[in-house]
Amino acid sequence: MQRVFLFLFLPCLVAADLPPLEPVAQGVFPRGLRRGTETSITIQGRNLQQLKGAIISGGGVSAKIVDASAYRATITVRASAVAEPGRRDLRLIAPHGSTLTWIDVSDVAELAEREPNSELASANPLTFPALVNGIITAADYDYFRFDASAGQTLTFELLATRNGSPLDGVLELLDTNGRGIEYCDDYYAFKDPRIIYTFASTGTYYLRVYGSGESGSENSDYRLIAGEMPHADFALPAGGRRGSTVEITLHGVNLDHAKELVLGNGISRATAIRNSPKSATFRMAIPLASDAGAHSLHIQGAALPIPFVLSDGPELTVSPGTARRRQDPMPVELGTTINGVIDSARAADYFVIRVDQPKQIVLSVESMNLGYLLDPIVLVYDEKGTRIAWQDDPTTNTGKEPANLDPHLTVALPKEGRYTVAIRDSQFRGDASYLYRLKIKEAVPDFSVRVVGSHTTLYRGRDNIVNVRVRRLEGWNTPVEVWADNLPRGVTARRAIAEPKNTSYTGTCGERHYLDGTNVELIFKVEPDAKLDLSQVTFRARGAMNGREVEREARARYWKSRIRVTGDAAEPTLFATIADLPGVVFQTPERSATGRVTAIVTRLDNSSGPLRIEGEGVTPLDVPAGTTRADVVLTKPGDVTLYGLVSGKVIGQSAPIRTEIRK
Questions:
Q1: How far, in Å, CA of 422 to CA of 199, rounded?
Q2: CA pair distance 51, 71, nearest whole angstrom
Q3: Which candidate, 217, 242, 316, 515, has a CA 20 to 30 Å from the CA of 121?
Q4: pLDDT value at position 508?
Q5: DSSP 194-253
Q6: Full-model pTM
Q7: Closest Cα partner for 541 from 467, 482, 498, 487?
Q8: Rounded Cα distance, 164 and 220, in Å
Q9: Paired residues of 437 in beta bridges
Q10: What gap in Å lies between CA 607 and CA 11, rounded to an integer?
Q11: Backbone angles phi, psi at 91, to 5 degrees
């Protein structure tokens, strides 16, 4: 029996209601390559059949589409010998949109896990340093065997969620007899485990990799990094002023092997002036012409970089324990960025500033946004010791919006005098790697602009919506105008005004939350004859306050709504694909083992007539307007495609369904 389900027919859906038409990358394997090599990467997902290009951010890495089908594509990626190591944006381009995933460029020889390796007896041998690409399916265990010496310190890192993999990975060290000696589920803020272990005795040991709760899938890839290579948890200071020479000390393990430090892709280089197993010090000249903002520090021989921020103001490094007394706070000048570590539980660092008149100041922290685990809170006290202001997070954080856990507090100091500023962990935690960068400065009202998402599809002959977020900084409290620049021919966009009021949204339980900023909708209209192509759209914003006009260029964010990953995309512009909206969209399973499938039907053709579903190997079915689901009978094995027709004209088709007809 063939069934259809009737619901209210919506002839004109807004962009947010459209089913997914752009390519979707659900799995990438291997998730990277060594620089100076070329490799073949398999991408699994949906809507991949018409891929026409791939773009990799940064210089020195290129990609080419080899073949593509609805659920699987193969690309060839080449990394030059001088490509900067680290994570790269990989953008897949198709006629109906683009999508973003990640790959990783390494400086270590790579290999793939070999099955079977699901038991101790079949463990894959590891030779250090190692970078292993693997996949964890449900209830799967990957075992690796290695030798270690007494007193040897080895690092084991699993890169999974940090690279976009769905794997919630676990690492476990086992002794020669298979007994557990160390375990880690989540080390980083967003799932990935890490083990650093010093072995007490010489012998053969095992490492076990698996999914938390035995989870996994054919798309749950990982990159295992293991060895005695140098590993830095952080650099102190974690930033430096452009045009200055900075003495940088790395803190971690096996740093007696760290001989060279490189800023970015060769912005500056430095050799070690002091080394020990747990620290290495370098003296680095930072060019005045280098770009301000976050960069990476690459340690020769290490597998992972660490963040380093280039600034335009004075920097102060506070050794752990030297600013711990509230009764004797460390004096600092306004405009200073303080680099410090909250290395023990219930610890706080205290600083004192002096103002000669009432003044508005801002306390801005970078910690979690740099990848560290300190959840900072800042507090301000007057001369009597009364707390006059504090902030933990700029706003509430939920799973519906990307998290922002670093404070940005604007405070009006009511009179001249001394004020004490404190920073600590919000839960009174402490650790040797709980690094922060705290900037204390006079407030200059400003704002930032971010595009909510890094890509969109603009459909011809209709209105399309792009969301842009304005975040008010340092006391900005006036409207901001937002607009789109360098639009392709045939595309126009209305300007929008971001009022000085944070946008609200509803949480899972119906509670009200507020964004750290204001979302505005820019409505794009695409003419029917606009060129079908991919464009990069720039967004700008302008406002005025206290007689001062400010204009800013927007940057694109990685995802529209995801707490797991935050930050700006590598490319600042919005990748906008101009496309035609199909008359009908079918959402179908990839496989059918029974010869029957339920298709989700979305009509976009504005017709009130019935839709006929047919195709080779499909029992024809007439679907009334307003139907959103239909049970379809498939009559032949192999790949079967559903075609939707209105008045005999094909207005859309499904992806192929891999069909088995079992008797």
A1: 39
A2: 11
A3: 217
A4: 82
A5: EEEEE-SS-EEEEEEEEEGGG---TT-EEEEEEES--EEEEEESSEEETTSEEEEEEEEE
A6: 0.91
A7: 482
A8: 10
A9: 339, 366
A10: 8
A11: -105, 125
d(CA 494, CA 492): 7
Supply the pLDDT for residue 565.
Answer: 55
* Residue 636, SS3 per DSSP: coil
**What was the pLDDT predicted at 567?**
79
H or E element that contains 345: none
Own/partner long-range contacts of 114-122 (Cβ < 8 Å, ≥24 apart): 117/142, 117/143, 117/144, 118/142, 118/143, 119/143, 120/174, 120/178, 120/206
Cα gap 59→543, rounded to integer Å: 35
Query: What does the pLDDT read at residue 566?
Result: 62
Structure tokens at 336: 């200073």
The distance from CA 554 to its chain's CA centroid, rounded to whole angstroms, is 18
The structural domains of the chain, ordered by start, are: 4-9+583-659 (2.60.40.2470), 22-106 (2.60.40.10), 110-227 (2.60.120.380), 231-311 (2.60.40.10), 324-443 (2.60.120.380), 447-579 (2.60.40.10)
Detail the DSSP E strand segments found in 301-386: 306-311, 315-317, 330-331, 336-341, 348-355, 359-366, 376-381
Give the C-alpha separation, 267 to 285, whole Å: 10
Which residues does 549 contact at the CB level (< 8 Å), separation at least 6?
A: 542, 543
Both tokens of 282, joined, read 């370098």
> Three-state DSSP class for 518?
strand
Instruction: Divide the 663 residues of the chain into consecutive groups of 10 and give the mean pLDDT of each group.
Output: 36 54 95 97 95 95 96 97 95 95 94 96 96 97 98 97 94 97 91 96 98 96 97 97 98 95 97 97 98 96 94 96 96 98 98 97 96 96 97 82 85 97 97 97 97 93 94 97 96 97 89 92 96 96 97 86 64 95 94 93 92 96 94 94 96 93 66
Sheet holding 376-381, edge to edge: 330-331, 348-355, 417-425, 376-381, 387-391
The residue count for the chain: 663
CA distance 336 to 356: 17
Name which of 652, 511, 512 is nearest 587 in CA terms. 652
Structure tokens at 659: 């069909």
pLDDT for res 210: 98
CB 311 within 8 A of CB 241: yes
How far apart are the C-alpha atoms of 15 and 18, rounded to whole Å? 6
Structure tokens given for 543:
């406002």
Residue 559 has what pLDDT?
66
